[in-house]
Structure formats: C-alpha cells, structure tokens
Amino acid sequence: MNAAKKTHPKKSSMNVGQLLAVFGVLLIAVIWIAVYVKVNDEFRAEQENVMSNNANVARLFEEHVLRSLSSVDQLLLLLKWECEKNGNSERIQGGLVINELTNLLSIADEKGNLIYASQRMERLVNVADREYFQVHAQQSDLGLTISKPLYSRIANKWVIQLVRRIDKPDGSFGGLVIASVDPLYFANFYREAGLGRNAVVALIGNDGVIRARQSEEVMDMGQDIAKTPLFAKIKEAKQGSFIAPSVVDGLERIYSVRAVSGYPLTITVGTEKEESLKAVSEREKNYYLGATVASILIIGFITGAVMMATRQRRQAQFLNFLHQISLGLLNNVTMGELLALINRYSVEAIGAQNGFVAMLENDQSMTLKAGCGVYQRLAGRRLHREDYDGILQRVANQGTVITVDDAPLWSEQARRLSSNVLISLRSEGEAIGLLLLSFPGEELAFSAAQIEETEKFAALASVAINNARLYARVESELHERKQIEDVLREKEQYLDTLFDSMSAGILVINQQNNRIMDVNAEGCRIIGAEREQVLGQRSSLFVENIAGADKGNNVSESELKTVSGTQIPILQTAIPVVINENQCLLINFLDISDKKRLEKELARFDRLNLVGEMAASIGHEVRNPMTTVRGYLQWLSGKKDYQSLVKYFDLMIEELDRANAIITEFLSLAKNKTVDLKCGNLNDILHLLRPLMESDALREGKNVSLEMGDIDELLLDEKEIRQLILNLFRNAMEAMEPGKSTLLRTFAQGEGVVLEVRDQGRGIPQSIMDQLGTPFFTTKENGVGLGLSVCYSIAVRHKAAIEVDTSEAGTIFRVRFPKIKSKNSEKEETK
User: Fold this and answer.
1) Alpha carbon distance 48, 698 (integer Å)
2) What are the backbone angles phi and psi of residue 415, rounded to the nearest 5°?
3) Residue 797 and residue 812: Cα distance in Å, rounded?
4) Band of the pLDDT at 11, cuts 50, 70, 90?
5) What are the residues whose beta carbons fall under 8 Å from the beta carbon of 261, sequence distance 6 or more?
6) For 359-385, what is each residue's pLDDT tens digit?
7) At 73, is the pLDDT very low, low, confident or very high (cuts 50, 70, 90)?
8) pTM for the full predicted model
9) Is residue 600 within 8 Å of 575, Cβ to Cβ?
10) Cα–Cα distance for residue pair 801/787, rounded to 1 Å
11) 93: closest CA among 84, 85, 101, 105?
C-alpha cells in the first residue's frame, strides 16, 4: 500500500456563499422598506385619526357658538322690536335676563349716545366712533354684526359686541341695540374639550381678526391674521383639515376648520403635531431599532451560513439519498434497482467517478451487482478471492475500511484506477456485501472526512438493503395473506348473499344481553323496519317467547310485534350458535298470517258446506209438513165453529211464514244450489235497489249515498247479488245510530271490480270478527245468524272474495269480483 500523497479537492462553495449574501442583502432591504412603509402608514392613520377627532371637536364648538349667539340675538331682536314699535324699551327692560354670556345690553340713539344700559353708567357714553355704529348708520340691511374685540367703556373689560340697527317708521337710522359678549365664555370650551398639551381653539372672523383664542394657559383675542398663510389655508379649507404653523406661537399644528353656519365666523381646532403623533414616533424608534437588530442578526446568520455551506451540502446529499432510497422502497423496486441507486448516489456524494456494489453469495463468493463508470459494463461478474490480493474478501468479512492506491484490478479497463476506498456492507452484524469507490488519474488519497462520509453512506445502504429484504418478505406474506383474505371475503359474500336470500326471516341474538346482532332482508320486511333500526335492539321488543334451543323439538308458534305495533303470528325455530366467542341464538321465523287466515277460511267453508248439505237434505222435508199445517189452519179459520180462535190461527200462520222464510234463507246455503249467471253490471243493480235502500234509511233517520265508478260487466246472478247487497246494507244500517251515513260504491281495481259498503258505526270487536260468516252466529236479539253466511255463500258461487276492515270509525265490507275471462284464457287454464 502506498502512502497518500494528495487529497481529493472539494467543490467550491463560493457560489452558495454568494447566493446567501445576495439573499441577505435583499432580505435586509425588504425589512427596511417594510419598516418605512409601516411607519408611514401608521403616521398617516394616526394623523387622519387626529384630524377626525379635531373635526368632531370643531363641530361641537360650532354647535356651542350657534346656541350662544342665537340666544343673544333673540334678546337683541326683542329690544329692536320694542324700540321700533313703542319708541323705547322701558316696557321690557325689567324682564331682561343677563346671563354669563351677555355682560351688557345697551341701546344707542341715532347720535351714538347710550340711552339705556343694563349696567349703571357713571357718565354719558357715546359710541358714534365705533366701527359698527358707522357701518349700521350708513347701511340698513346688515342684520346682525359681530364686532372685533374692543374695550367696553361701561363694563371696563374686553368684549365682543353683537349689534342690530333700529329703524324709524320712515326707515331712517334710529340707533342700535348692542349686546356685549365676554370672549372668555367661548375660550372656556377649550377646558371642556380636553385636547391635550399645546392645543388651541379659536373663533376667527371672516375679516381675519381673532375674536377669541384659547391655548393651554393663554387666552388671546384681537390679532389680525388676514394676511398670513394660515388664514389663507383657513379660507381655502372652509370646512376641512390641514397642517400649518401657528402665526401666534409658531408651533406646527394639525388644524380642523369649520365655518359657523349663518354667521361671519370660522372655528379652528388645532393640536400640536409633535404631541399628537408622539405615540407613533415612539413606535417608529422601536421599528427602526428592530430593523437594525434584525439586520445585524441576518448578517451574522449569513456569515455562519456561508461557513456551513459545505456541511449543509453534504447533509443535503444524505437527505436526498435517504429520500430516493425511501421512494424506491415505497415503489417496490427490485433489489438490483435498489443497489444501482445506492451505487449512483454514493459516487455522486463523495465526488468519485467510478464504483460498484458487490454482494456475498451463499458460497461466500461475491458478485458485482451494480456499477458506475468503468464498472458499469461489469455488472453480474463474479469476483474471485484473489482480486485485489484478497482485500475484497477481507473487507467484506471483517468490516474494515481500506484505501488502496494504484491497486491492479482484474480488468484491463480498470488499470487506470489509482485511488480506491472499500467499505463493508453489513446487516444484523453479518457481512452482506462490499461498496467500492475510486478516482482515476494520478496517485491520490481519500481524506478522513471523505472516508467518514463514505462510511455513513455504507451504513445507510446496509439499512436500505436490509429493509428491502424485509419488505420483500413482508410483501410475500402480505400476498399470501391477501389470497387467504380474498378466499374468506368470497365465502363471506356467499354467506351474506345466502343469509339475505333466505325466504324465512332470521334474527341473530346475543344470549348474554339479548340484543339483536344481525337480521336478514326477509326479517326486516316482516318486522317492517330498516336493518339499522333493528340492530342493537332487545329481542323482546319484537319476539317475546323464543323456543328453547335445548329442547328436542324447538319449533313453536309465537307472535312477532312489528314496528307499527301489529302482532303477526310466526312459526319459529331457535338454533344455538357461537359467533366471535359469543353464545348466540339463530332464530328462523316464518310469517304464517296467510296460513292462519286460510285455516279460518277453510273452517268457515267447512261449516258452510255442512250447513249447505243439511239444507239440501232436510230443507224440503221440513217445508212440506209446514205447508200442510198452514193449509189446515187457513181452512179451520174459515169455519164458523172456530171464529173465536181466528186470532190464534193467524198468529200460528204468521209464525209458520216466519219459519218458512228462515228455511228459504237456509236453503240458499245449499252447496248444490244452481245459479243463473248472466252478464250484468253492479251499477244497474244498485240503481234498482236505490229507492228501497233510501226508504229504509229515511224510516230509521239515517242516510245512504252511492258512488258508482266506471266498471266492467260481470257474470252475475241478479237475484243473489240483490240479496247480497241488501244483507250488507241492512247490517250497516243496524250498526249505526240515527244521523249517521252508509256509503255504497263500486270501482275497478286491478283485474276485477270491487263493491264496497262503508258504515259509520263503532266497529266490530276482534272476538266477533273471528266468528263472521259462521251460520247461526248473531249478535241481534231476533236474528237467525244466516245473513253474512248467505253473503259468503253467494260470493263463493260468484268466485268472489269478501274482505272486512273495521275500526272505531266504522266498518268496511269489500266484495272483490273477478272480471269475465276470455275463451282463450279459459282454454289455457283448462290445459
């Protein structure tokens, strides 16, 4: 082995450093621009807020001034009116009220002499030299004028005088009414507004003379600012806000201006700009301090980042290697593809140009599985023990890291290789292969950092190979498991299909808590609920008596309660089963409602057949003797010797006729009674019976109505159908109280015709419903119990069916007649 002469040069990270420096400069610029924009936005927002507050104060001051001037003007108008009407004001002088606003009320004549003052005058006072006097003396239409601040000769203080002209009857000048107002009254508003330090409130005339101005500690008046830039801005704004320096104290303020409506005055409210924006200024210092600190931190970070660029690049290579290997494992790459990935990323990470991955075989030989550079064409070649003088085998088995300079290789193509690093690949402590990386050219040596990095790659590669093998085993097991699951799923689907296709209802009940675990489709249909409504419910909610599964014969009849509350007779079977280690009962049940109904019908028909056979055999034999007895009774009643017994003879004849009628009705039950079936319409028969039914209803104080639909003709025995209709009609009438109604209607339904008789009685009890149609069963005191029996017999002879619906609102009898069949359909039935 030759000693190392040079180390491999590392790639320069200058480009990365330059990029980081540019990024840092841009980031610092963005921070300072953001701070500048933020500060400007906050100054602008706070300035607008101050202007809004000053505008609100100005509006309030305007209302204050308007109320004050209006109250003074009312006094002046009152004095003016009295002077012009009566020539003097003596009549109202005693009633004038002088408030804190109005210091003095006075009246001057046309020469300017004060002829009245609300304060005592020590001497004669003349105001002819005052500007307001001269103006009003020359003009008659000035209205109210407000003077500049002047010194009162009566009150001996500075005042603002409100003046109105007095006109003589001929319209000439007659003097003035004057109200002297204390400017301090307006200045007091400043203290109420609470505007802060160095704020100012001023009342300025349109002539540019300040009527009243109040700052923090000074009250001023009389200054003429008409030619100043400030007044020019006030005139321009009229009603708005601006920033300007004061002409009185030189402080820059934020002003809000508002013209007093109806008066030649303007209100200004100003707050010192520096004081108003003090909070924003403090935040500005903090923002710029934060930006400075952030800039220093960014510079420090960029400096450190440039120094760590090389290390980060290596870490990025490791992360990229891990990412690609993870993607390969997730995408189920083959072992050969995985080894090729490991080889390629190892070569790129360490900056080598050649390399290969070799794996140990079962016989401890090695095979080159993947290669880069000069080794790319050698993939699949078996490596011999003597290659590299046995170093390959030693590195693989012992796990040592060896660097080789200018070592000969088995291929002439690889003779140019001069610097190599060999690292063992291991799994669970055992050697599984070898990773080799190399540089061509002059003699070079790997640095310690490169060897360390290569070892890390080898460790990651070993883990990846181990995981790939594990994934392969897991995938194989998953495939087998999936096949088993597919078989189980098919069986489960088959059982589910079989479970739901059963013609009997099935309930699976957990015996520990008596809860329903499963139910099939037929069971849901019989119960009348969705599957979700049944699962988890107690079994007793639907089936109270469950056949014992431990008995030899567990088939029994019971009743099932549907969701609607209806009791359905069922035939049930209970079978014990174990499901998921739970003791359960498998309940099979059939709805035997139709069977029960058929049994009742068969029993009733058996009774009808029996009675019919009796009627056929003994009916005529009973009627013949009765006819003989009736004849002799009629003959004896005509004899003179028996005239005293005629009433008894008539009673016996009446009873014989009643018995004969019963026998006639009894004979209608005869099984072999012939019927004369002809094509007819139920509506025609109802039309014929309508007068009879209406008269019966009228006699009993009840009502009858008919609704006849569009129906087909039927094969009918008209006499029997009449008897059927009258029997059902009279039963309905007898079931109702006076005032109630019976409805008879016909309609087509399906392939037949329905006759419906509906009453408004109290309904039929369930105990009686079971006996309907039974011969000689009656609830009437004088009834025979053959009416409904005859109806059922007639229905049978017409191949019709009778249905009964009853409730507390009444009872409905429906007779369903089949339609006339064609000859072709009769032939098909015969076949």
Assistant:
1) 96
2) -65, -25
3) 22
4) very low
5) 62, 66
6) 877 776 778 788 877 777 777 777 765
7) confident
8) 0.36
9) no
10) 16
11) 105
